[in-house]
Automatic annotation (TrEMBL):
MF annotations from Gene Ontology: 2 iron, 2 sulfur cluster binding; adenosylmethionine-8-amino-7-oxononanoate transaminase activity; dethiobiotin synthase activity; pyridoxal phosphate binding
Protein name as annotated: Adenosylmethionine-8-amino-7-oxononanoate aminotransferase
Sites marked Participates in the substrate recognition with KAPA and in a stacking interaction with the adenine ring of SAM: Y21
EC id: 2.6.1.62
Top-level taxon in the UniProt lineage: Bacteria
Pathway stated in the Swiss-Prot or TrEMBL entry: Cofactor biosynthesis; biotin biosynthesis; 7,8-diaminononanoate from 8-amino-7-oxononanoate (SAM route): step 1/1
Family according to the record: Belongs to the class-III pyridoxal-phosphate-dependent aminotransferase family. BioA subfamily.
Coiled-coil boundaries: none
Transmembrane stretches, start-end: none
């Protein structure tokens, strides 16, 4: 017993746990984290890490925020959970009210689930059944070729065909892929969508608005997305904005869709929704989508739900996070981080090892000139380790390094992150 408890978390973990996106045979021992505060994570061996990637893009107010902790504690004492079919509760109602007040104005209904992938599954099922319920079934879905919408089968189907999806490819439904309309490719993408429309039978278009995260923080302009949305609206195609990553201030606005003139029919949220504290997903819809499910015929019901749908603790967490998010301090912090990023970016321009430096709001991405852009690129492992050795968590996407910090990250901490990024440039130049 004694030896068991003196073993590190990392080695106990290594005996019995299977980690996500990890080749367990070659992976280094995981880093045991015992405490979090602000943008810092404290490891069991005494090391302190700066979380420059918001723990996979979720943490927005920093770790273990006392205000959120307090609200969670209150909620758990009041009501922990109740089934959500036939029952409701205050946190779910209040959260729906507050979300609808900040989401695009055409959004009228909130459907809860557990995470980003389920929010996407719900959106796809809503869109498909919408046409079914209307008596005009449509089959095709349009998505961006390099997109990422999650790891469940529906979400994988509308995501890029890559090394991640390769073993499952024969089980994924067919999707009509558009190139990502990065600057210079707009006309090509417009002609691609026209070709798809000629085939007819298109139910929905799902997209990551303005910023494709997993693709490598790839960015494109609002104008072309507005054009695509307009074409879809004219052709009776349901538009689905996957704001799982872009939501809650990442792009400089509350939601990326605020940069657009046209509003999507369905919107998916998760990640920052609870401040990155609890797992919760939201799929919002217009009144028109919702009304297609109202019927005397029970077969037109939306038959979807999860055990933990609208968990009260998760909803209370999201409410607490929204309190912080809508506060002027958080808005100032987002602006401050954007400005710091921009300053750092201007210092980097013309660096020989940089192919491109991109920024949207609080997200900064630097693409290195190392040729290959695969996730398995060995540069990736070197850069990741270099950052860790310097007490900063930065997880490169192939030869792209990005900074997406919690909004409470101070200027001194940002400087530390930028210092590590600069060190990476030297490292690559020497390779
Ligand atoms: C992370 C992500 C998802 C999946 O969310 P999970 O909670 O990890 O299932 C879906 N869409 C986008 C754009 C994401 O970044």
């Amino acid at each position: 017993m004694e030896t068991f408890f003196t073993m590190s978390l990392a080695s106990r973990d290594h005996e019995i746990i299977w980690h996500p996106y990890t080749q367990m045979q070659t992976a280094a021992l995981p880093i045991g984290i015992v405490r979090g505060e602000g943008s810092l994570l404290y490891a069991e061996d005494g090391a302190v890490y700066l979380d420059a990637v918001s723990s996979w893009w979720v943490t927005i107010h920093g770790h273990s925020h006392p205000y959120i902790a307090e609200k969670v504690a209150q909620q758990i004492k009041e009501l922990d959970h109740v089934l959500f079919a036939g029952f409701t509760h205050r946190p779910a109602v209040e959260l729906a009210e507050r979300l609808l007040s900040i989401l695009p104005h055409n959004q009228k209904r909130i459907f809860y689930s557990d995470n980003g992938s389920t929010a996407v599954e719900v959106a796809l099922k809503m869109a498909i059944q919408f046409w079914e319920n209307r008596g005009t079934p449509k089959r095709r879905i349009i998505a961006f070729r390099d997109s990422y919408h999650g790891d469940t089968f529906g979400a994988m189907s509308v995501s890029s065909r890559s090394a991640f999806t390769q073993p499952f490819v024969q089980y994924l439904f067919e999707v009509e892929f558009l190139d990502v309309p990065v600057p210079g490719k707009e006309q090509l993408v417009l002609s691609q969508i026209q070709e798809i429309l000629k085939k007819g039978d298109v139910a929905a278009f799902i997209f990551e608005p303005l910023l494709l995260g997993t693709a490598g923080m790839v960015m494109y302009e609002p104008a072309i997305l507005d054009d695509l949305l307009e074409i879809c609206q004219q052709s009776n195609i349901i538009t689905i904005a996957d704001e799982v990553m872009t939501g809650f201030g990442r792009t400089g606005k509350n939601f990326a869709t605020e940069f657009l003139k046209n509003q999507p029919d369905i919107l998916c949220l998760s990640k920052g929704l609870t401040g990155g504290v609890m797992a919760l997903g939201v799929t919002s819809s217009t009144a028109a989508i919702y009304e297609a499910f109202l019927s005397d015929n029970p077969a037109k019901t939306f038959f979807h739900g999860h055990s933990f749908t609208a968990n009260p603790i998760a909803c209370a967490t999201a409410l607490a996070s929204l309190d912080l998010f809508t506060d002027v301090i958080c808005q100032e912090n987002r602006l401050r981080i954007s400005q710091q990023h921009a300053q750092f970016r201007s210092k980097l321009s013309n660096h020989p090892t940089i192919k491109e430096c991109r920024q949207l709001g609080t997200v900064l991405a630097i693409e290195f000139n190392t040729g290959e852009t695969s996730y398995f690129n060995n540069v990736r492992q070197k850069l990741y380790q270099f950052a860790l050795d310097n007490n900063v968590i930065l997880r490169p996407l192939g030869n792209i390094i990005y900074v997406m910090p919690p909004y409470c990250t101070t200027n001194e901490q940002l400087a530390q992150i930028y210092g590590v990024v600069t060190g990476m440039l030297t490292l690559i130049a020497e390779n």
